[in-house]
Amino acid sequence: MRVVPCFIAMMVSLFSSALLAETATEIVRKSDLQMRGDSSYTEATMKIIRPTWTRTMSMKTWSKGMDLSLVLVTAPAKDKGSASLKRYREMWNWIPSIERVVKIAPSMLSQSWMGSDFTNDDLINQSSIVVDYRHQMVGKEVFDGDQTWVIDAIAKPNAPVVWNKVRLWISQSTYLQRKVEFYDEFDELVNTMKTYDVKMLGGRQLASRIEMLPADKPGNKTQIITHQAQFNFAVKDSFFSLSQMKALRD
After folding, report:
1. Widest CA span of the chain, in angstroms?
2. Cα separation, 177 vs 182, whole angstroms
3. Where are the beta strands (DSSP E) in the chain?
4. CA angle 87, 90, 93 (to 5 degrees)
5. Res 22: pLDDT
6. Bridge-partner residues for 155, per DSSP?
């Protein structure tokens, strides 16, 4: 007679877990859409901070959906015109000083972008946190005065991603990612991203300051300050091309 109650309890537990997983996935999906929209354009300053020096770059970024993105460096003079392009699963860098296009192999996704603490995957590829990972609710915490959901995103088997696990702190009010931890295949923390100064940019709330901090290099960090943004405008797929990458100017 005890079998039936136990079976019912097990089914309720499984059903509750399924609902929780579905909720976590939906939160991540809304967060991803909130930050990128159907298309986006931003103007930003990147500051690479080291214990003994600081380097600053200006850049413009375009994206369309999850498959097309283009980053153009507009300053300083020695880096001006450098660009990075993603089209679906392929990525390239344009180096104007030597007039050369370099294809980014999957093995290079974890490498630093322009000497910063952001990887090629962070800035160019932006592996889909929605499609390439499964999601699990961890709990709720306060970050920077913002009530957040804490969700673990675990890489699906054979997914073409850099990080084995990503832990996200997603705002319950804006759906913005307020904090993100990136873990390698050994479940060791590699980088932590924190976001601040949420304001209206391009008609939607956006964290205007992002900081990336490597776990094994105290005193190192990279900031991205977003000055302008636009979302959900018409842009052709052909804009995201090798010829456009080489032709872009400030």
Report:
1. 79
2. 13
3. 39-49, 54-64, 68-75, 83-87, 90-95, 100-103, 133-143, 146-155, 165-171, 177-183, 189-201, 204-214, 221-231
4. 90
5. 53
6. 133
Strand partners, 58: 45, 75
Which helix (H) or strand (E) segment holds residue 3: the answer is helix 3-36
What does the pLDDT read at residue 182? 96
Nearest to 34 by CA among 135, 174, 153: 174
Query: Which pLDDT score is estimated for 21?
Result: 46
Parts of the chain with a pLDDT under 50: 1, 4, 7-21
Which amino acid belongs to residue 201?
Answer: L
pTM here? 0.85
CA angle 195, 32, 20 (to 5 degrees): 100
CA 241 to centroid of chain Cα atoms = 21
The span from the CA of 136 to the CA of 18, in Å, is 10
Q: CA 26 to CA 60: how far, in whole Å? A: 30
Nearest to 121 by CA among 97, 105, 140, 133: 105
State residue 126's pLDDT score.
66
**Separation CA 1–CA 189 (nearest Å):** 48
